[in-house]
Queue: 3 jobs
Job 1
Amino acid sequence: MDYPSRILAKAVDEISGLPGIGKKSALRLALHLLKQPATQAIALGDSLKKLVTDIRYCRECHNFSDAELCEICADPKRSDEQLCVVEDVRDVIAIENTGKYRGKYLVLGGKISPMEGIGPSKLNISSIEKKLEDGRVKELIFALSATMEGDTTAYFIYKKFKALSVTFSSIARGISVGDELEYADEISLGRSIQYRLPYNEKD
């Protein structure tokens, strides 16, 4: 596709590099920005720059954060006794949107997947151990995707820490088998976290 401006062509190339956006959609977005007040595009550019330069990972749960501790970990009203283990930051957002959970989280950063070369050492499993050792966590909740990789990850963590005095549970299967957590509707996900089930080796 030929463009009348190299600057426009560069913008289209950059925008089309985002997931799910092709060249035509990128061109529409670029032209839309050109029609808006310059301050709008500048504000967008500034927010994107801060997104990659200023955002941090919470030292406690590995959630995205603006400070050393994320707002959830820093909230004294959140319970230390419940620790919800999720794969991704998007899962934290999904569960928080249900309004049904008042404990804390641990973001693994993925799930065990030998086919993709992801083993336990590449996940934040060691952070779970640190939290369980201090004795504050009474219940470890698995909120992982209903896939073979999600189940494998939950089983690995369960086997590693089952000797400790902690209760294991998993979200109820209101989530269809094979579904990723972030795509579940809020009502189903809320019920799944609210009516979670005891976790054991037969799950």
Job 2
Amino acid sequence: MKASVLSFRAAVLFVIVGMAWGIVMAVSQDHAAMPAHAHLNLLGWVSLFLFGIYYHLHPAIDRGRLAAIQAWVWIVGTAILTVGVGLVRTGTESGEPIAAAGSIIVFADILLFAWLVFRPAESAAARSALPAE
């Protein structure tokens, strides 16, 4: 699966979970986990959707295996980070190392994305072999 499709689909799943979680917090009037909810929506919905747009606009990168790995690592890191922050914010101290691990995963993955964005372009010969868009 192309990285753009993976990113878009995962973003939609994350926003559904994030919105449902927000409704549950509103109904229960317990907003203790609001920072985790915000992380889920920002990293899971917004960031993944933006990755999807970038990959869609750069089809040579989108078709690459490294882009799909980057999207999967972001998905996993976001889930881990969100769970960790949620645990911390609801009074479970054991959530701290989980949140820290998720943070490190997401940070390392944004460095991978940055490398994909800034790496030297493929050679002109390789680009000319691709069909026009």
Job 3
Amino acid sequence: MSSREENFLNTLKQLSQSDQNTLMAFAEFLLIRSGQIQIQIDEQETSITRAVPSPEDIPRPEKESVVIAIKRLSATYPMISKQTMLNKISPLMSQHIMEGRDANEVIDDLEEIFRKRYEEIVAGD
């Protein structure tokens, strides 16, 4: 967890329950405004669902470095937090740089990791 996230959580814990609810409502408003959440209203029930955008269509170049591939995949999947991917990406970078693992194999694994994370997000995980 980043220091910014820790600071936010510490601040949140200091607020009253009412103020925490207000902050949550405002955060949901910002998500709705940005298009990341959609509100579906029917006569029986009101629900808020997270709208996960589709990945960008950025084709893989014939020759690509691992670093450029990470940048491409980050742009392809902007809905994926780079912080959450760091633990999965770092070992692959190390394998490539320190152990000499083939760049194409590492990039194949990176693409799979990003695709799986996207599918987890779509599934609501």
